[in-house]
Amino acid sequence: MKELVKYDAACAALQACASVDEVKEWADASAAREAYARQAKDKTMQKMAADIRMRAKRRLGQLMAAQKAAGLTKVGRPKSNGNGLNPIRLAEAGIDKRLAQEARVAAAMSPEEFEAAVEKRKDAIDNPPSHVPHADEPEAYDPREELYEFAAEAMTIIDADDRLKAAMGEI
User: Fold this and answer.
1) Residue 92: which of 20, 8, 33, 36 has the closest Cα?
2) For range 90-112, the mean pLDDT
3) 121-125: Cβ within 8 A, 24+ apart
């Protein structure tokens, strides 16, 4: 019960974040907690950390959209926007392209879609995908087989060409 209270407090604190830096700290900390929980095989903690991390990404996307609308972030080289504030790039805030894209996608989701995505992530933690191929699945593609077939065909052509040249007395 105590963990649930802390989890609820963390979600509320995350929603109260007003800067990209604060939200990024939450996202980074929850990613670390999720990794530690995975190593400790604590699925409950791992699911809570994954939930908080997804909510941090969503909040980050919301803040990024608000900053872009206010003219505080720009793509490319920053220029003065006339209000005395110089817009910053996401990279300067420590946000890479992948995190920015994940945040935009999460922020664009409806609340129902987002909650469904959170539940799907939690289910994936409980039931990790199996990597054992099933009997009815096709065999894995191995490009070496095609290369061997091509090489064998090429050698046959070369041998046939040499035999033809030998028969004609060119070799």
Assistant:
1) 20
2) 85
3) 121/50, 121/51, 121/54, 122/47, 122/50, 122/51, 125/43, 125/46, 125/47, 125/50
**Amino acid at residue number 128:** P
Q: How many CA atoms lie within 13 A of 153 on its CB side?
A: 6
> pTM to 2 decimals?
0.63
Q: Using the 8-state DSSP alphabet, how is residue 93 labeled? A: G
pLDDT band, residue 83 (cuts 50/70/90): low
The amino acid occupying position 44 is T
CA 63 to CA 72: how far, in whole Å? 11
> pLDDT for 125-169, tens place per residue?
888 776 555 556 566 666 677 777 777 777 777 666 666 667 666
Return d(Cα 52, Cα 74) in angstroms, integer.
28
Mean pLDDT of 27-46: 88
Residues ≥6 apart with Cβ < 8 Å to 43: 37, 125, 126
Query: Pick from 125, 107, 139: which is nearest to 48 by CA?
Result: 125
Burial class (CB in 10 A: 0-12, 13-18, 19+), 27: buried
